[in-house]
Amino acid sequence: MTLNKLPSIFNRLRPVSIGFDNMFDHFDRLMNEEFGDTGFSTFPYYNIVKTGGTTYNIEVALAGYGKKDIKVDYADNLLTIKSVKEEKDSKEKNGVIHKGIAKRHFSKVFTIADDVEIKGAELRDGLLKVSLNKILPEGKKPRSIEVK
Length: 148
Hints:
Layout: H1 6-13, H2 21-35, E1 46-50, E2 55-61, E3 70-75, E4 78-83, H3 91-94, E5 107-111, E6 116-124, E7 127-134
Antiparallel strand pairs: 1-2, 2-7, 3-4, 4-5, 6-7
Helix pairs in contact: 1-2
């Protein structure tokens, strides 16, 4: 199946699916923004790492970016990591003779499930790490059932 046929499949599933609006909206956004005409957007590069039974990290490679250069927002189940417009400094002022590490403007959006909370974000050594934790309701946690 080709990528260009997926949106029509999602549209055919909408009328018979209840409560999945956010998921369909997410896939629509992916198809329109991420996959577009130029292919899948890979910048900035990232990993999603499962660090425990219910914990995850999103690791985003941001070499050359500082804390003031990026913004992390969360709203409506969307975690957005984007570059902040930098003030223009002349190369000579910074002592840069050749600028080979570009600071591209980017916006990367991740859909976060309702039962996942964002614990925090840290930028260290060119790697932004966003920590997440899936919340398990008491009824879904493993437990022993007493036999009477």
